[in-house]
Write a structure and sequence with these properties.
The protein is built from 8 helices and 5 strands. By secondary structure, it is α+β, with helices and mostly antiparallel strands. The chain has 2 domains: 61 residues; 197 residues, no CATH class. Helix 3 runs antiparallel to helix 6 and helix 6 packs antiparallel against helix 7. It is flat.
């Protein structure tokens, strides 16, 4: 605001009658110059006012992290325990604490033991899509001789359908654990909305000034300011859309494991030991062969360099002996 008062005072002083008398210019030219200065000064003042107001609002709004004012982490939920602070029950169900006037981002993980992880993964996808959600990632590991089958899915489930969907997912097998985390982002949402509104107002004001600008300098100034404000506005809108997606769709990581997973143990008899030793020998020889294959080019290069150095040394020795 001090800049605006200084600008207006400077313009008034330049356009005062005493200054016009000192210049000795004709009265008509002086009036035209005064009108031009007044129009330019007024336009500049309006532009500066718009920039200052938008800048103060954008900087003053700040940004708050999702954890500000948020609910604490739930962690692993033990059977029969209810967390009164975060609004999650022991069975992974959200309680009445989550109301419509709060914006909450819910994330979590669920581990289930199932007879067939691959088949259960498809069932989980179907349940999620029926609830109106989607699957962001899906990894399946078929069973091998040394590894049991497993599957990991990253599910995006609508927040209002999370309770019902979790019940259906847990029915796929035996639940190992359910861990949920709720973060209150209400203040962050309000801050983004306020900053978006302020920047949109600034952009609209600059657009109207651009349409009324007749001076090239003023037009360039307005265009530069408008480009900056539009970039900031698009960035804030993108952040707001991402936050809205996190609020509307809970993120759940689902791990599915096969029944009867047993870690490999020691051989139980003589022939099992012979087989295990033979397999270990084959694996070791294979590893050595692979290592030799990797080292062979380096060995060849070292031999060539060594031969060149040896040849140079011999030539130098012969010349010195001859001398």
């Amino acid at each position: 605001m001090t800049i605006l008062r200084d600008t207006q005072s400077s313009l008034n002083c330049d356009a005062s009658p005493r200054n016009r008398a000192d210049t000795g210019a004709p009265k008509g030219n002086t009036l035209n110059m005064r009108r031009s200065w007044t129009r330019t000064g007024a336009l500049t003042a309006v532009v500066l006012t718009a920039l200052l107001l938008a800048g103060c609002t954008a900087n003053g709004g700040g940004s708050s992290s999702p954890s500000e004012g948020g609910a604490p982490n739930v962690g692993v939920i033990e059977p029969g325990v209810r967390d009164e602070t975060t609004g999650f029950a022991a069975d992974g169900m959200t309680s009445e604490v989550k109301t419509s006037n709060r914006d909450v981002v819910t994330t979590g993980s669920v581990s289930i033991t199932v007879p067939d992880p691959i088949k259960s993964a498809q069932s989980a996808v179907t349940l999620t899509e029926q609830a109106g959600g989607r699957v962001d990632s899906r990894n399946e590991m078929p069973a091998t001789d040394n590894q049991a089958a497993s599957a990991t899915l990253r599910l995006r489930i609508p927040a209002d359908a999370l309770d019902h969907t979790l019940i259906e997912l847990k029915a796929l097998g035996t639940v190992n654990y359910v861990s949920l985390n709720a973060t209150d982002v209400t203040q962050q949402t309000k801050d983004l909305d306020a900053r978006i509104t302020a920047l949109q107002t600034s952009v609209d004001r600059l657009l109207s000034l651009m349409s009324a600008a007749s001076d090239t300098t003023d037009l360039i100034t307005i265009e530069d300011a408008l480009s900056s404000r539009q970039a900031d506005l698009e960035s804030l809108i993108s952040q707001r859309n991402l936050l809205a997606d996190q609020i509307d769709y809970s993120t759940i990581t689902l791990d599915l494991y096969e029944d009867g997973i047993v870690a490999p143990g020691a051989p139980g008899d003589f022939w099992s030991g012979v087989v295990a030793g033979w397999l270990a020998l084959v694996n070791t020889v294979g590893a050595v062969v692979v290592a030799l294959g990797v080292a062979l080019p380096w060995i060849g290069a070292i031999v060539i360099v060594g031969l060149i150095v040896l040849l140079i040394v011999r030539l130098f020795t012969r010349r010195r002996n001859a001398a």
